[in-house]
Write a structure and sequence with these properties.
Structural class: alpha+beta
Largest sheet: 7 strands, mixed
Number of domains: 2
Bound molecules: 3,4-dihydroxyphenylalanine
Order of helices and strands: HHHHHEEHEHEEHEEEHEHHH
Mean pLDDT: 91
């Protein structure tokens, strides 16, 4: 019986050892066969039960087994140790190391930081407001009539009848004016939401920077001067610009500012829709009705406001033709900036 087991275990060991490739497997082999509770020790334990006559014979067999197993084990151990030593020695320290990729700022943040630093240089502070806004701050206080199309579910994500995801950063103007007396001079960056079909030109979420300056005798000329100073710093000194009359419920008069298309230099191309001009922002003088809504005396104060899309600004500056790339987080795009 026991001699059968000895044969089996020898075969078992020979099979296992042929599969051992590294120190970890070697240790598993040792635990299985040679450790205190290993298969070989178990056989020695069983020797007690053998008869007096059998004991010397079996004892011999067992010793032979133990010696064979130990020897083979030690040989393999030496072999594996020397292989591992060799592979350690083979490391070539003069090779360049692995490059670790570190994160960088998203193009939108870079663009926003640049816009912020230009306006800070012009005396503006930076103030943020919430993305969940009241219908009143987003529309009513900004002089939107009750039936304005932007108030439609088609265009705006409503939370309930009184609250919504802000569709622009203009409501932060209301929040600031309700809290502070003039002079007020701030830009207000942030995320905004619109219920629009997603395409290369529009996305359901994007970013804007709002600007507001209110004081005694603020003029349209100052608005122009400030925005032109910004555009020169941001887009380049040699740029041509123009202001076109426009309409926004919260400004009167209202305008849109264009710069010469820097791709075709005004000759007309696909990006500027063959007009030679690119619209970069909306602006105007704060409507007296808005001042009334925040209890500013519209006889005493005047002010200007402006708003621009950060994605659009970055698209124009870097010649990107699809707004969705800002949200895809595609490494190939992000790595370029
Ligand atoms: N809120 C406008 C929009 O989302 C942008 C804008 C236009 C903001 C004119 C202004 C402004 O402050 O004066 O399209």
């Amino acid at each position: 019986m026991l001699d059968e087991r000895i044969k089996k275990i020898t075969a078992h060991f020979n099979q296992d050892i042929s599969a051992v490739k590294d120190t970890k497997q070697l240790e598993e082999l040792r635990l299985k066969f040679l450790s205190r509770n290993g298969l070989v020790s178990q056989l020695f334990d069983e020797l007690k039960n053998a008869s007096k006559e059998e004991k010397p014979v079996l004892g011999k067999l067992l010793n032979a087994l133990r010696n064979e197993v130990t020897e083979k084990f030690n040989l393999l151990k030496d072999h594996i140790d020397s292989l591992e030593k060799e592979s350690v020695e083979k490391i070539d320290l003069s090779l360049p190391g692995f490059e670790r990729t570190i994160g960088s700022k998203h193009l939108l943040i870079q663009t926003l930081n640049e816009i912020k630093s230009i306006f800070k240089g012009l005396g503006f502070s930076v103030i943020e407001g919430p993305e969940l806004e009241s219908d009143y701050n987003n529309f009513g206080a900004l002089n939107f009539p009750p039936d304005h199309p932007a108030r439609d579910m088609q265009d705006t994500f409503f939370i309930n009848s009184d609250f919504l995801l802000r569709t622009h950063t203009s409501p932060v103007q209301i929040r600031i004016m309700e809290k502070t007396k003039p002079p007020v001079r701030a830009i207000m960056p942030g995320r905004v939401y619109r219920n629009e079909a997603i395409s290369s030109r529009s996305y359901c979420v994007f970013h804007q920077v709002e600007g507001l300056y209110v004081d005694n005798d603020v003029t349209f000329a100052e608005l122009k001067g400030t925005l032109v100073a910004f555009a020169h710093q941001f887009y380049g000194e040699n740029l041509k610009y123009r202001f076109r009359p426009s309409f926004f419920p919260f400004t009167e008069p209202s305008a849109e500012m264009d710069i010469t298309c820097f791709l075709c230099h005004g000759k007309g191309c696909k990006v500027c829709k063959h007009s030679g001009w690119l619209e970069i922002l909306g602006c105007g003088m704060v409507d007296p009705n808005v001042f009334d809504n925040v209890n500013y005396d519209h006889e005493q104060y005047t002010g200007y406001a402006f708003g621009m899309g950060i994605e659009r600004t970055a698209l124009l500056k870097y010649g990107i033709d699809d707004i969705r790339v800002f949200f895809d987080n595609d490494f190939r795009f992000l790595k370029q900036f």
